[in-house]
Amino acid sequence: MNKKLVAILLTLLLTVTVVMSGCAKKEEPKAAMTAAAKNAMQMTSYEMKSKVVLEDLQINIPEVAGDPSVTQAMTMLKNAEITMDGMYQADPQQMEMKMGINLKGDMAMSFNIDMVMTQDTIYVKVPSIPMLPLPEDVVGKYLKMDLKELAEQSGETFSPETMDTEKTQKFANELLEALLSEYDQTKYFKEINAKDAGLPEGVDAKQVVQFFVTNENVNEALEILVNKVAPKVVDIAGKEEYREMLGLTQEDIDTAKAELSELNQEDFKAGLEEMKKYLKINTFSINTAIDKNDFPAYQDVALNVEFNEPETSESVKVAIKGSTQYLNINKKQEFKIGIPKDADVITMEQFEESMSELGAY
Prior knowledge:
about 350 residues, signal, Lipoprotein
């Protein structure tokens, strides 16, 4: 056999090996989503782009729908958009977020709120909001709030453990395992062709998995959530390493366990059957696009539900879509806002003083 033929055969063999190894990494939908969710908790830094749109809001309740203020609010909220673009790093802990709020209708308005958070401080840029006059000397300034002081003012004790990202990630991993493990793959998970998933440009997904709930399985899904997932969640939250982080006492945990154990199953199931008369799930799905490193590079949620009262014909319909894209995962982040300078910062006392001069306090 000549050398040229040997080289061709080896090339073919290597090509097949690479393709087969790539295919082998494609997991069953449930296992893939579980692994991606866990990996998300291991991200030490990332850039994020999120959007939530209220696509539809219909309220057919005479005493409510006839109220002009409600009608105006519905008009503004329909097709309202909230965007959130930000960056995060775990060490040193820092997050920044640019939130955009866009309201539609005759009273359309848009404004932005910038936020920066460190381990013990949060900065919120005072926005310029149409129809809500704020003192000129505070607009554009960053309101600095100490997390410990905020906790004390609300009668709570601030624990640095609440900002412990490593412990928070571990806790989230256990919750995800408890949640996803109880749902059957054939009933609640399926794979979506990446070409049909509506992925934004730049998202290179090796696999797209969907978790879904329909009218046919919603009762079972809620039974699983209450009877199987909830007890596990309480047990996890009750672990000594998490209680302080969550601000819970052993009494809180014992009370939650007692309430779950005392749940009347017959009444609960009867309530679920009664709910079928009122609730219609047109869509409830979560698509997760998983990249080559098994990170959830993109995720979107679609919710479209209707609540109908058979006896009065009153109804409410809500349709929401949301998405989040993660970029530059575990890479050095170039923060755009950064920690605000002292000249751009005001305290809560200064803010309240300016507001009182305006007559808002």
